[in-house]
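ok trying again, last paste got cut off:
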Amino acid sequence: MKNIVIAAGYATRLGELTKNFPKPLLKIGERSILGRMLDDIDQIPEIDEHIIITNHKFAHIFEEWKQKECRWLKPITIVDDGTETNDTRLGAVCDLILAINGGGVPLADGKQLSILNSQLSIINDDLLVVAADNLLFFSFQEFVDFAKEKGTSCIMCHEQSSIEKLQRTGVVELDANNRVLGMEEKPQVPKSHWAVPPFYIYTREDLDLVRHSVENGCGKDAPGNLAHYMVEHTTMHAWPMSAGRFDIGSLDTYYEAQKKYGKN
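nice, full thing came through this time. structure:
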């Protein structure tokens, strides 16, 4: 299983703090946000490599971080998607496909988006796909174990009582066995209280669906676009998170995380 970290965004909501520095490498105490996440994922026996997808503007910073902070057992590959501004970003779904396709994304108009990266090769393995801007209070091992039990691609979910917050995220309907019956992105009238955070497992059997998702109409920008597409094309289950997470999406939440968790 490959751990794919989506980290090619430009974090414009954090202003000057991330103007020339990637949000996942901001520190909470003495450890970076991404480093804290990898501390957990690296211990999962099924994981054999971490693949971090970033942009051209920040790729060299990730390479420096890899040399300086790296203390993990599994190898780390940094993928440069070639973009340099928020306006030219590829979007999380295209970035993921670039990584697993060895550098190419089939597009809806019959064209192909390609990059040159000698470190890339085609991936035919199960994938753990994660966003790199969260502090987590559970282990991804639980998620991997759940996916192995179900034998399908999986998403995470958590109960969210706030209708306003549900209207700003993905929302799923589940049956009694946690099979996903449907998913909506930012619904005005949510059909459940199950919100979807940006953590996914895609099985090797479903990788062709992932590879051809954009050319078949999947949205490019957010990782939730792919989850929504996959729910409509294959069987998926949802793992209810066993504990909480802290989403670092703004300056306020970053400073709050520093205050609450910087000493941990």
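cool. The chain is about 30% helix and 25% strand. The helical segments are 33-41, 56-69, 92-101, 140-150, 163-166, 207-211, 223-231, 251-261.
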